[in-house]
Design a protein that fits this description.
Structural class: mainly alpha
Radius of gyration: 22 Å
Helix content: 40-55%
Mean pLDDT: 90
Number of helices: 7
Length: about 130
């Protein structure tokens, strides 16, 4: 399901318009910019991703229902619903990495020494002596 359809689903559930929810829905799916297949879900489609949405968007969003009544919808509920619609359950980050092989580089055994000049921006580098 894409972000827009998640927003439509949320509007159907809590009221308001899809535009009221789209920022949350697009954030959860924003990992598609980095990974073009379902593995993108490992970045935000889990319990920590739900809490991250609350940190970014606040605890609640105000939704104006058709009768003009304003209600507050918890952001975590919106995010949880998104994950449930995509996966059918709410995994933790540990569920994603449970089968991940541990590579030597993960423990810092594959260090590369870089000259300091590689760490500085080009314009920050000191010019050598001029003659």
């Amino acid at each position: 399901m894409n972000s827009w359809h998640h927003a439509v689903s949320a509007a159907h559930k809590w009221g308001g318009a899809p535009e009221d929810y789209i920022d949350i829905e697009e954030f959860i799916d924003s990992s598609k910019k980095l990974i073009g297949d379902v593995r993108h879900r490992s970045l935000y489609h889990h319990t920590e991703g739900v809490w991250l949405c609350q940190r970014i968007f606040g605890r609640t969003i105000d939704i104006t229902r058709s009768a003009g009544k304003v209600i507050q919808v918890p952001v975590r509920l919106v995010a949880e619903r998104h994950v449930l619609e995509d996966l059918g359950w709410l995994p933790s980050p540990a569920d994603y990495i449970a089968g991940m092989p541990i590579k030597p580089w993960m423990s810092g055994t594959q260090r590369t020494e870089l000259p300091l000049s590689h760490l500085l921006k080009h314009e920050d580098r000191e010019e050598g002596p001029t003659e």
